[in-house]
Amino acid sequence: MSDHRLNLYRVAVSPRTTWWFIELHTPAGTGLGECSDAGTAAAVLDEVVRAADAVRGRDVLGERELVVSGLAARVGELHAARAHTAATVLGGLEQALSDLAARHKGIPLWEWLGGRPQGPIPLYANINRMPGSRAPEAVAASAADAAAQGFRAVKCAPFDVPDASLPLADVGVARLRAASAALPDGVELFADFHERLTWQEVESVLPCVEDAGVAWVEDVVPVDAVDRLRELRDRMPAKVAGGEMIFHAAEAESAATATVLDVLMPDVKHAGGVTRAAGIAAAYPELLISPHNPSGPVATLAGAHLLSTAVRPGLLEYAHGEVPWRAEVLRGAERVEDGYLHLPDAPGLGADLDTDHPSVQLVWSCPL
């Protein structure tokens, strides 16, 4: 086998979730990245092939920035759906390149990024991908389970799944109320709207959201909808969060300038990598940085390292309860205890993919 190779791995987690991992082997070492939630399998593979072409024949240590900037420029030339896939695959490749560079220097990724030493990273539990129904009582049980595991904040997406018997706004409110009632004192509730409601529907549910004690509302409207974001800020005490899909820092500028956003959520996948996400965070030192991360264990480690660079680091999102074998994929390197992620001590991300794990499937491999 060539000592200069790019591998793409697939992990089927649930009907909703598939993790995609990029593994880059070079004479200088190995790097690992994640490009989950990038689009269809065919589109992901096509973009990974293009990424491999961009790396082929390059000095991946000395020309890392050139490779990333070239692929980033291509993202701007594509239509929306394909641009998202290309950006996210770039995110996985860039994570792998950064992991490789940090490993080559023998230092953890947070140090290579110029961040500060970190203790355990506080997490919040995203329960939106737990198995089971989205009936209010099931959402409540998932929220209670996350709280029992030590998470100090729990996020649900109450408006994601329609119910034929009720308007979407009404069923979402029922889920929020059930989750709120299930959480003990001291555990916050976050609500991710995923831009599912019309503004008229948003206005109708805001009093109920406030009554449920929701501490954070996310993606109620697009991050550039400044007037609507201002209305949210004026009408409720919850923090306003957004920006999970931004690729360029300038996409959040209008909201930040208008001071209508409290929490910025760059994603190490969708932003085109951990260094690009760190650049987005650095552009807005006044905002709380809480990386968007309903992801697998590789992006979770990358997001944790990213937080070391933030002026105002917030909580890291963690996809709680999807599968019991999650940590095994990285041979236990993702260690979550009592709502905190403990970063490994090893260089780079601090983890290697267990390619012998029965869930890890090699989809494509190419010599470089």
From TrEMBL:
Residue intervals of the Mandelate racemase/muconate lactonizing enzyme C-terminal domain: 136-239
InterPro entries listed in its UniProt record: DgoD-like, Enolase-like_C_sf, Enolase-like_N, Enolase_C-like, Mandelate_racemase_C
Highest taxon in the source lineage: Bacteria
Pfam families noted in UniProt: MR_MLE_C (PF13378)
Protein name (database record): Mandelate racemase/muconate lactonizing enzyme C-terminal domain-containing protein
Lineage, top ranks: Bacteria, Bacillati, Actinomycetota, Actinomycetes, Micrococcales
